[in-house]
Specification:
Blueprint lengths: L1 E4 L2 E6 L2 E6 L9 H16 L5 E6 L22 H9 L5 E5 L2 E3 L1 H8 L2 E4 L4 E3 L13 H9 L1 H10 L3 E2 H7 L4 E2 L5 H14 L12 H4 L5 H11 L8 H14 L2 H16 L2 H15 L18 E4 L3 H12 L4 E4 L3 H20 L5 H9 L1 E4 L10 E4 L5 H14 L5 E4 L6 H5 L8 E6 L8 E6 L5 H13 L3 E6 L6 H15 L6 H11 L5 H8 L15 H7 L12 E3 L5 E3 L1 H13 L9 H21 L6 H12 L8 H9 L1 H14 L11 H9 L3 H6 L1
Parallel strand pairs: 3-4, 4-5, 5-7, 6-8, 7-10, 11-12, 11-14, 12-13, 14-15, 15-16, 17-18
Antiparallel strand pairs: 1-2, 2-3, 8-9, 16-17, 19-20
Bound molecules: (2S,3S)-3-hydroxy-2-methylbutanoyl-COA.
(2S,3S)-3-hydroxy-2-methylbutanoyl-COA binds next to strand 6 and helix 3.
Length: 699
């Protein structure tokens, strides 16, 4: 056995050389790994006793891609293309032995090997698009030559991982070997290739699969249309498509030049920097400085949920989906039946869409028991209250839970803004109380704000964080403050949007600017969708606010065919002349000066205060890091990943100095006395010291 370097060894099994990588956590193609591959293959090729070579990895996975932590650094060691050239030109068969996830550069290394074998649990993909990139090591030219153009288009623009079975069917894998016997299987396969003198397959020399799409630009146009909505605003999907067009229409080496050019554009651009930031931010959220990894977890075997409304039912589905039995409490059998009926309907709709079988519907429904008695929650390990958003009602319920539920259970509230420290005072066990703020629809939205109260114990926090992953959520730990993190930033945007339409912009102007920025929907379209009459009623309406006036005119949103917008029978919105006149009159009566407002001002007024508020949240210790705030807004409110999240965007696209200057300008001009534009001290410090907010926070 030869140690090539500290992550690569070279051994021989008879006449088969074996290059083994062992570079945790995912054998990413760091400089050391590339060095080891280059030197290891050089020696294996030079070894006349070795009639073939197997490339295999120790640990959890085959190479999972380029080392994303190396991006932006000066390149060291042999380049990936050099390593690939060495492998592809080897004068003897090279077999990639794949387990875990062969992704990105990892699959691109496997594609220059002559053959690929995999275990049944292996997965393969080119997910660079999720990092705002494209496969930059020949993947865009080789994948379509193996799988054909349509599958390559779908795989590269979705970034999904193909199973070993699919890989075998599409020609990406040549053989599936027994689980747990990858090395033996790969060596036997290599030996067979030698014994039967198989040709050394170079994918770059194949043309049949790409030729099928030659002269058919409609294949690409149809595909572009099919992904347009999902990829709106993202550069990388289109660049991936263009590389595949090059693979169809140009000789291999020319196609490689197109790939290199477009890769360089993406990797040096802001979108990829933002998406790489999000990749790491999504993993950082799980790290809680004062809650060590070793913190013991409470075993959550059964869950109680109080409230079978939209939120309670949606929350219950998350646990049933994870196979955890749930008891749902409602005040009456009718409300219980209605709530469980909605859950069943949701499951049946998913089954109709082919997501799972009707048997699975019954299995999950079987995990949901209904009751009208809180006493039935006595033995639950976790109880989540999802009832009316009123402090007295919540404190009353928590007082009862404190008497009923076994010691050691977690008592959680789904409140979206109320003070959880106060709710905890209704119990004798504040250390067991935590906020689990789900976002509607609770069974769909990935974000879960986990709200630690002053006395919440580390075990309860650690258990809640682990549980969020188990039920498929991204749990972000936040502190108790009005609106926690997500809604607290939203309030900043909402306030400015509501003022802008009194100062001369129209709702459709604000929505257009924010939709154009990449948010899924503007605030006024969102209000029409949710309904303007939430919490409003005719009897008590005083006709004071714009919303009162709209609701009194039965303009309650999409459901009444009119809200801020007019809607046709297909609910297609159009600006409303009536609303425009109503707004102008309402503004004049309140002495608002109307003026032309630019799109830039709309964007700044809506988004800069969010950055400033995020800095205040950090200052107050209500979020651990700026990237957690980014994740909250990406996962919970649809902030575009290619803009990195509000804090990343404020720092890396706008510049904190510009945000601060505007906050100061608006603060100086503000006569409301509310201080809403007061610049965050942390923001001022970061700008003064010319450091990031995180650095300024860490001192
Ligand atoms: N580079 C560096 N670190 C990586 C990494 C990578 N490619 N992939 C994962 N990690 C770290 C991750 O940050 C975490 O670190 C730990 O590994 C476990 O990851 C030339 C240019 C492989 C499916 O996009 O999809 O190749 O937090 O928590 O849930 O064309 O990681 O423990 O310190 O996610 O089991 C293309 C990205 C790169 C794959 C495993 N490859 N990784 O998931 O564990 S660009 C990717 C993943 C490229 C070429 C281009 C997942 C995973 P820490 P984890 P997991």
């Amino acid at each position: 056995m030869t140690a090539i370097n500290d992550v690569t060894t070279l051994t021989r099994d008879g006449d088969i050389a074996i290059v083994t990588l062992n570079s945790p956590p995912v054998n990413a193609l760091s400089a050391k790994v590339r060095e080891g591959l280059f030197e290891g293959f050089k020696q294996a090729i030079a070894d006349d006793q070795a009639k073939a070579i197997v490339l295999i990895c120790e640990g959890r996975t085959f190479i999972a891609g380029a080392d994303i932590t190396e991006f932006g650094q000066a390149p060291k060691g042999p380049g990936l293309h050099e390593v690939q050239q060495m492998i592809e030109d080897a004068p003897k068969p090279v077999v990639a032995a794949i387990h875990g996830t062969a992704l990105g550069g990892g699959l691109e290394v496997a594609l220059v090997c002559h053959y690929r074998v995999a275990v049944p649990s292996a997965k393969m993909g080119l997910p660079e698009v999720n990092l705002g990139l494209l496969p930059g090591a020949g993947g865009t030219q080789r994948l379509p030559r193996v799988t054909g153009v349509e599958k390559a288009l779908e795989m590269m623009t979705s970034g999904r991982h193909a199973s070993a079975k699919e890989a075998k069917e599409s020609g990406l894998a040549d053989e599936i070997v027994e689980e747990g016997k990858l090395l033996d299987g790969a060596v036997a396969f290599a030996r067979k290739a030698v014994a039967e003198n198989w040709p050394l397959v170079k994918i770059r020399e194949r043309d049949d699969k790409v030729a099928e799409a030659r002269g058919k630009p409609e294949v690409f146009e149809a595909f572009r249309k099919s992904v347009a909505r999902k990829t709106r605003g993202f550069l990388a999907p289109e660049y991936n498509i263009q590389c595949i067009e090059a693979a169809v229409n140009l000789p291999f080496d020319e196609g490689m030049k197109v790939e290199a050019k477009l890769f360089r554009e993406l990797v040096t651009g802001s979108q990829s920097a933002a998406q790489r930031h999000v990749f790491f931010a999504e993993r950082q959220v799980a790290k809680i400085p004062d809650v060590p990894k070793e913190t013991p977890l409470i075993d959550i075997k059964s869950v109680g949920i109080i409230g079978a409304g939209t939120m309670g039912g949606g929350i219950a589905m998350n646990f049933a989906n994870a196979g955890i039995p749930v008891t749902i409490i409602e005040q009456s059998q009718d409300r219980l039946d209605a709530g469980l009926g909605v859950v069943r309907k949701n499951y049946e709709n998913s089954a109709k869409k082919g997501r799972f079988s009707m048997d699975e519907v019954e299995k999950r429904m079987g995990l949901l028991q209904g009751s009208t008695s809180l006493e039935d929650l006595a033995d639950k390990d976790l109880v989540i209250e999802a009832i009316f958003e009123n402090m007295d009602v919540k404190k009353d319920v928590f007082g009862k839970l404190d008497k009923i539920v076994k010691q050691g259970a977690i008592l959680a509230t789904n409140t979206s803004a109320l003070d959880i420290d106060e709710i905890a005072t209704a119990t004798s066990r504040p250390e067991a109380v935590i906020g689990l703020h789900f976002f509607s629809p609770a069974n769909v939205m990935k974000l879960l704000e986990i709200v630690r109260a002053d006395k919440t114990s580390k075990e309860v926090i650690a258990t809640s964080m682990a549980l969020s992953k188990k039920i498929g959520k991204i749990g972000v730990l936040v502190g108790v403050c009005p609106g926690f993190v997500g809604n607290r930033l939203l309030a900043q945007r909402q306030r400015e949007a509501n003022k802008l339409i009194l100062e001369g912009a129209m709702p459709w102007d604000v929505d257009r600017v924010l939709f154009g920025f990449g948010l899924p929907m503007g605030p006024f379209a969102m209000s029409d969708l949710a309904g303007l009459d939430l919490g409003w009623n005719k009897e008590t309406s005083k006709g004071e606010t714009l919303r009162d006036l709209l609701c009194e005119r039965d303009r309650r949103g999409q459901k009444t065919g009119a809200g801020f917008y007019d809607y046709d029978e297909n609910r297609t919105p159009s600006p409303s002349k009536e609303v425009e006149e109503l707004i102008r009159q309402y503004a004049e009566e309140r002495q608002f000066q109307q003026r032309d407002i630019s799109d830039q001002e709309i964007l700044e007024r809506c988004l800069y205060p969010m950055v400033n508020e995020g800095a205040k949240i950090l200052e107050e210790g209500k979020a651990i890091r700026t990237s957690d705030i980014d994740i909250v807004w990406i996962m919970g409110y649809g902030w575009p990943r290619y803009e990195g999240g509000p804090m990343w965007w404020g720092e890396n696209v706008v510049g904190l100095d510009k945000v601060l200057a505007k906050m100061k300008e608006w603060d100086a001009a503000d006569t409301s006395g509310t201080g809403v534009f007061k610049p965050s001290a942390l923001l001022e410090k970061a700008v003064a010291d010319k450091v990031s907010l995180q650095k300024a926070l860490e001192g």
